[in-house]
Design goal:
Length: 239
């Protein structure tokens, strides 16, 4: 990764290939999301919680694979999903430490054959760059609210380790560790005052989204089995 602050004059000639934007997520099994994405994400992925590798603080993620650096939704050319998380769609742009707009000059979507430009001929921001700025704005605005949501779950002791001990169709065992989900038993035991507090904070429907999304784990297992079967069939045909 080669992050630099975006200069509309210095980088006005850069072009983006839209078909390569999602390539950065091809080996991401955990993709961070903000709470404004929960409802859409729940229709496609399990929503889990994990400790950030650098800060050790809990944050929400969509789970896209059952192994490290595995994205079971990656088809080889795109993410085969109806909803692509904001943290994927904003590639190759980032928000710097001082809220400056940065770009990763090493991202594969930067290509002279791309059709998306950053700056119009008159020097104004392109429609594409405005879209990126809106996505980054949503991520920045959602960060503090999401951190507060997670802090509330921790205060109520509602996060518990997810224990998955799976046997795939080919008989191979698979264990997923380091992930946390909603402790539904403790959630059901909350008193009326705490439930009312969650409702007033706008958190109750998010908790239900997390619970519904847990069923998407079965989709990941199915995709994993399909990928293994295709790999075995390809290897058999190659002999």
């Amino acid at each position: 990764m080669h992050l630099v602050e975006l200069s509309r004059s210095e980088h006005q000639g850069l072009r983006i290939r839209a078909d390569r934007v999602e390539a950065g997520a091809a080996r991401q099994h955990l993709i961070p999301i903000v709470m404004g994405e929960f409802r859409k994400a729940a229709t496609q992925y399990p929503i889990v919680f994990a400790k950030h590798p650098e800060t050790a603080r809990f944050a929400p993620y969509v789970l896209s694979g059952l192994g490290l650096e595995e994205n079971l939704f990656w088809s080889g050319t795109e993410l085969d999903v109806a909803y692509v998380p904001l943290n994927v769609r904003r590639q190759p742009f980032y928000v710097g430490a001082d809220n400056e707009l940065c770009i990763d000059l090493d991202h594969p979507c930067l290509d002279g054959s791309g059709t998306r430009v950053l700056v119009n001929a008159d020097g104004s921001d392109s429609a594409y760059l405005k879209e990126i700025l809106a996505i980054l704005g949503e991520l920045v605005a959602g960060r503090a609210a999401t951190e507060q949501f997670v802090a509330t779950l921790l205060d109520l002791d509602l996060l518990a380790p997810i224990v998955l001990d799976i046997v795939l169709d080919d008989g191979s065992p698979l264990q997923v560790q380091g992930l946390y989900g909603l402790d539904e038993e403790k959630f059901r035991q909350l008193d009326e005052a705490k439930i009312a507090g969650l409702w007033q904070a706008g958190y109750l429907d998010l908790l239900y989204a997390v619970m519904i999304a847990s069923g998407q784990l079965f989709k990941l297992i199915r995709l994993k089995n399909q990928r293994i079967a295709l790999s075995r069939a390809w290897q058999g045909n190659a002999r």
